[in-house]
Amino acid sequence: MTQLRQEDSKVEVSGFEAKYYDTLMDLITLGWYPSFIRRAIADLGLKQGDRVLDLGAGTGRNALLMREYVGEEGQIVGLEIGEEMQRQFLRKTGPYPNIVMVERRIDEPLPYEEEFDLAFISFVLHGFIQEKRDAIIANATRALKPGGTFAILDYNNFDVDQAPAWVRFAIRKVECPLAEDFIRRDTRKMLETHGFGDFSQTEYLKGHIRLLQGKKL
């Protein structure tokens, strides 16, 4: 079995791909992504005044959508290390003082302790080796208030060999090897190990993508 390496990941994008990330996502998905991500953010169940930790915040697209729900009383703290992503995030969210950008790696210890109602990670967790996934989940655990929610929007757990041809192509030819490793693992058990429970799940794209939410018990 091939040893998976963090160097094989594709989640930390740069250059042309980073500069035009949102546009490329819209084009690659034939216009499906904007309505999908808006629906997924709505499914988070955010409330006015909630504080959100956005792990791997990207261009700020998700933060702006979440702000529609948390309002001016809430706050969104986005963590991002990509220079181009940071520039886009700051440009898009600049008018809103309750959206904050922090340059920090999400797989290294974070300074937050029981401060947030929701920790959110979108299509990022699959791009890490398992050791780093556990570190990210541990960071979310510490950052959340008791009863807070960790929400993972990413690939569902399914049998890649039995998936439709277009799904197998996307996972094995477009994605990095870490994605298939993530799909084959039990994400819910990962969270249970870190003290999460009371799970809820919303599925998209015929069950191949899901929003998995767990409460910090």
TrEMBL record:
rRNA-binding listed as a keyword = no
Keywords assigned by UniProt, alphabetized: Methyltransferase, Transferase
What SUPFAM superfamilies does this protein's entry cite? S-adenosyl-L-methionine-dependent methyltransferases
The UniProt record lists the keyword Transferase: yes
Q: Which residues form a coiled coil?
A: none
What range(s) does the Methyltransferase domain occupy?
47-156
Q: Which GO terms describe its biological process?
A: methylation
* GO MF annotation list: methyltransferase activity
Do you know which Pfam families this protein is assigned to? Methyltransf_31
The protein's name: Methyltransferase type 11
